[in-house]
Amino acid sequence: MKGKAHWQILTGLVLAALTGWVFKNLSGRLPEGSEGLAFITAAVAGCGFVGTIFMQALQMLIVPLIVTSVIAGIASLHGMEGFGRLGGKTVGFYAMTSFLAIVVGLLLVNVLKPGLENGRPNEVIRMAIDDQAANATEADKAKIAAAGERKASDVWDIFKRMFPPNIFKAATENGQMLGLIVFSLIFALAMTRLPIGEISTLREVFQSLNDVMIVMTRWVMLVAPIGVYALIVPIIYETGLELFQKLGLYFVTVLLALGVHFFVTLPLILLLMAKVSPLAHMKAMRTALLTAFSTSSSSATLPVTMRCVQDNAGVSKKTASFTLPLGATVNMDGTALYECVAVIFVSQVVGFELGLGAQVMVVVAALLTSIGVAGIPSASLVAILLIMRNSGIPHATEAAFLLLAIDRPLDMLRTAVNVFGDSCAAVVIGKSEGELGILEEMPPADGGV
């Protein structure tokens, strides 16, 4: 396919939405056992297979990309002083933007009150919770049961995940990148203690390996339009409209909150703190944002995010190599916002009054859990159940089935917000480090990434 990568991916998204919609409508009219229905089922399954291969190709790059980019980037900071300064700025920025995102969600869910109807709990949604829990699939029951087994103390396991006994096993089998990042940071700092000749050799080795990973990323992105198409078709086909009709105001509330953070809060931060054009940065990040929306995974999007931030936005390798892998692991603006809205929405539906003090505790819990459960499968579901149970909200498990049923479309949206927040951190911190050329006129990246 010719043309820039973001247009190719956007075309794939539009075609996938149309295909999924057509398949969904046709399947409802075709009789069971008909050849037409068998064809549609096979086509959707085939798309799912191709989409899985695309996702796995992106995930295949994550571990070697993190190791090589973090080590090559941090080794150039010349020891603990540069590392400490960069680390402090990054952690502070991520905490600030996550807090602002949660506050936006808190304000909108209290203003729009999606769980209420005429000031009273919405009985239609309340019945939908019971119906969804009664008719849940075995896979959903298993997912809810696994999430329900988590305890509040598990959030603090983030410190254990920083030092796994086997870093590669933790990263590849459990998807816990934090331990891999910590190891790479320590390894890079240890390199600075070696004689200058050995440092130069090691740095060149890791830089060369990182260059290889960049080339591989561009190869994978050549088939991104096909991969995105294959990922989206099954989602559109399988997602029914009935629940969205019942939960329309809730969906709009989450959408508006994410939109305010994406189009107002983060651009204002770019404008005020980095003195750069928010529109120019959005343009630079188009490919990464569309990939994040399609894959619903900040980690899988990481290779694309790093190329966009460096090639299109002009942030240095040392800054991008530290802020972006860490952000993809612990910075979850969209997820934290969603957790807050979901918890208060459920409390409205079941008629459980959350006062100002209780809502402040929800804000604090959402901030902590968005970081602490980042390495846990179904992280947002775990966090929402933890917050609801600790707040004393009844029917938490039943409500989780309803939230899970409409989670994927919202997950796509909040992942794009998460990735954009990570990229804003790289720009702001790069500017604070005195880097030149950020979001100035940049040459197009090879491969359209």
Describe the structure.
This protein is an all-alpha fold and 449 residues long. It has 21 helices and 2 strands. It has one domain (5-448): Orthogonal Bundle (Proton glutamate symport protein). The chain has helices at residues 5-29, 35-74, 80-112, 123-134, 138-148, 158-161, 167-173, 177-191, 196-222, 224-238, 242-246, 248-274, 278-284, 286-295, 298-312, 317-330, 333-349, 356-372, 379-391, 396-405, 407-432; strands at residues 116-117, 120-121. Strands 1-2 form a two-stranded antiparallel sheet. The radius of gyration is 22 Å and the shape is globular.
Task: Please give a handful of descriptors for the protein shown.
449 residues; mainly alpha; Proton glutamate symport protein; two-stranded antiparallel sheet; globular; disordered C terminus
Outline:
With 449 residues, this protein is mainly α. It contains 21 helices and 2 strands.
Percent range for β-strand residues: under 5%
Structural class: mainly alpha
Sequence stretches where pLDDT stays below 50 over 5 or more residues: 443-448
Q: Give the total of beta strands.
A: 2
Could you give me the name of the CATH homologous superfamily? Sodium:dicarboxylate symporter
N-to-C span: 14 Å
Q: Count up the helices.
A: 21
| Architecture (CATH level 2) name | Orthogonal Bundle
Major sheet: order of its strands? 1-2
For the sheet with most strands, the description reads: 2 strands, antiparallel
- Overall pLDDT, averaged? 87
List the helices and strands and how they pair.
Elements: H1 5-29, H2 35-74, H3 80-112, E1 116-117, E2 120-121, H4 123-134, H5 138-148, H6 158-161, H7 167-173, H8 177-191, H9 196-222, H10 224-238, H11 242-246, H12 248-274, H13 278-284, H14 286-295, H15 298-312, H16 317-330, H17 333-349, H18 356-372, H19 379-391, H20 396-405, H21 407-432
Antiparallel strand pairs: 1-2
